[in-house]
Every structure is written in structure tokens, then in C-alpha cells.
Amino acid sequence: MTDLSAFIAGLPKAELHLHIEGSLEPELMFELGRRNAIALPFKSVEEVRAAYAFSNLQDFLDIYYQGAGVLMTERDFHDLAMAYFTRVAADGCRHVEMFFDPQTHTDRGLPFDVAIEGLLSGMAEAERSLGVSAKLIMCFLRHLDEDAAFATLKAAEPWLDRIVGVGLDSSEVGHPPSKFAGIYRAARERGLKLVAHAGEEGPPAYVWEALDLLKVDRIDHGNRALEDPALVKRLAAEGMTLTVCPLSNLKLCVVDDLKAHPLKRMLDLGLHATVNSDDPAYFGGYLGENWVRTATAIGLTRDELVTLAKNSFTGSFLTEAQAAPHLAAIEAYAASPS
Ligand code: ADE
Ligand code: ZN
């Protein structure tokens, strides 16, 4: 282990942008396929991995929705969550704010409760056995209409005290945040936190809409905000957290080379950026790998790494009292001789 990877491994971190369905490794996909008698269009794990060559977001989404089709029971969702938590606990991750896509499952006939019951039981076990805390964010699929999002919020009504907030994901271009202004108002009225993917492939105008029309608490990705200096100024002034996903950006061709990743520039511009994995089973790395490969490629300093770690907790939906021990642990770690 290099000095840099050892330093990163020991640094307390939170993950704020993780689609749990995107942590489905090919090995587990085959196991669940067998368990649930669902045939996969691939002969081997190697063949699945070879199919993970994407030119853009939609290429990935097509294969990601197909993969999620093996998830059928509460136990499947529990096992998926525990596989993820076990992996990131080893990366020094202490807290996760996890997305799930209920419509991906209800649209293929699963009752709403199956995914959420399984995920909540995985989250409880992770807290007990690994000491990793977690909160759940329910995403609406933006390629579907707002009525479908309202039906999903209605199905989630009995669970709202277990869901910290709502998000917006799937195909961005052509599905602007403005399409979902009504459902975000309804979610806000219910006291839910609000996040939305914006500026991953979509233009800066989508980030403005997420701020002004959806009134989000965080922006997921936000890369293309850098094209608009007035928007950068606004995001910096508001201390808006961006959940940046470097290996996702590389795999989906948002950047051509990790060396050209704008994370350092974001920090230099005063943006409250964080590092996250997005869909680690598809994009070639979990949280630690995102940190190490990006820090190596763009030359992040220890101070910048410490800032990113603090941002991951101050940008989280933990209360100040819940975040405080993590921030103190980061301070103590940064001050200890290595
Ligand atoms: N769903 C899962 N990962 C996503 C991403 N990076 N962008 C939009 N929707 C997604
Ligand atoms: Zn995402």
C-alpha cells in the first residue's frame, strides 16, 4: 500500500452518492439469477464485465436496469446492501446516504415494500456489525412522468419516517428538473430532504432549475456547472454540496482522462465538493478506489483530502451532533504523525 492509499484508507469518510442497485457485482448477479431462476443474457462473469464499456449515461442505464432484474426478494436486497457495506467499511467509510430506485422494481411487478424492507434490514445490520451508519434516499426515474413519481411517493407514504429524502436520476438530457417541480414541492411539504442529479450530461440550465425550481439541498454530480461562472458563484456562496463521482465520470465519458477531472478546480473555486462512487460495480471502483485514483491522477494534497473528508460529513444529512464525532476524528487523524 502506498503512503497515499494508506492515508486515504485511514481517513474517516462518508459516501453521499451511491445507487445500491449499482453495487450489484456480476458474481452476485449470477447467484441471484440462479436463486430466482432468472436467465441472464451472459454466459459468465467475464462476459458481463466485458459488456461494461459505455460511451454515455444511456449505454450504462440500459445494462444497469437489466442487471437489477435479478433482485426479487427482501433477502436479495438485504444481501446486496450487506455486500456493499462490507466492501466500503474496509475503505474507511463510516456513513452512507444510499439511493434506491423503487420504480425499477415496482415496474417489474415487485411490491413497493420488498426493496425497502430488504435495504432497511441490511442498513440495520451494517450499523450493528460494521459500525457504518446509513440513510436512504428514494429516487424518481426522470425518464418516466411526474404522475409515476407521485404514485411512488404515495406508495412510500408508510415509510416516510425511514426515508431521509428524495432524488432524481436516470436519463438526464431531455428530462429537465422543471418536469418534477410538483413532486419536489410535495416532498418538501412532507419534510423530506431534496437532491437531484444535475449537470452530469445536462447543461448548466438544469443545475439552475434544480436550485430554483426543485430547491435542492445537494446537487448530484454538477460537473457542467463549471461552464457557467455565475452558477459557480451561486453554488460557492450557498455552500451547496456537489456529490462528484470521478470514476463514473471517466467510465461514462463525462471526462476523457482522470487527469483532466475537474475536482481540484472545483475545490479551488470554493465549491463544496465530495468524492463518491455512484455505481461501483459498473464503474471499476468503490469509494476508496475513487479517492486514491483521483488523488493520484490530479495530485490532491493531504489538506485537500482532509477538506474532502470533512465535506462528506458537513454535506451529509446527519445532524450537527451526529456529524461532530466524525469531524473530530478527521481532525485527530490529520494531526497524527504518519
Ligand atoms: N442511475 C444510476 N446511476 C446514475 C447516474 N450516474 N446518473 C443518472 N442516473 C443514474
Ligand atoms: Zn448517480
Question: How would you portray this structure in words?
Answer:
This protein is globular. The two termini are 14 Å apart. The protein has 338 residues and is of the alpha/beta class. The protein has an 8-stranded parallel sheet with strand order 1-2-3-4-5-6-7-8. Helices cover 50% and strands 14% of the residues. The chain binds adenine (ADE) and zinc ion. Adenine (ADE) binds next to loops.
Task: Summarize the topology.
Elements: H1 3-10, E1 13-19, H2 26-35, H3 45-50, H4 57-67, H5 74-89, E2 93-100, H6 102-106, H7 112-130, E3 133-141, H8 146-155, E4 165-169, H9 181-189, E5 193-198, H10 204-212, E6 218-221, H11 229-238, E7 241-244, H12 246-251, H13 263-268, E8 272-275, H14 280-283, H15 287-298, H16 302-314, H17 320-335
Parallel strand pairs: 1-2, 2-3, 3-4, 4-5, 5-6, 6-7, 7-8
The structure holds adenine (ADE) and zinc ion.
Rg from alpha-carbon coordinates = 19 Å
Query: Can you tell me the number of structural domains?
Result: 1
Count every beta strand, where a strand is a DSSP E run of 2 or more residues: 8
**What string, H for helix and E for strand, traces the elements in order?**
HEHHHHEHHEHEHEHEHEHHEHHHH
Largest sheet: 8 strands, parallel
Structural class: alpha/beta
Residues in helix, %: 40-55%
| Chemical compounds bound to the protein | adenine, zinc ion
Summed up, the helix count is 17
Say which CATH homologous superfamily is assigned.
Answer: Metal-dependent hydrolases
What would the CATH topology be?
A: TIM Barrel
Beta percentage is 5-15%
Output the CATH class name. Alpha Beta
> Biggest sheet, strands in spatial order?
1-2-3-4-5-6-7-8
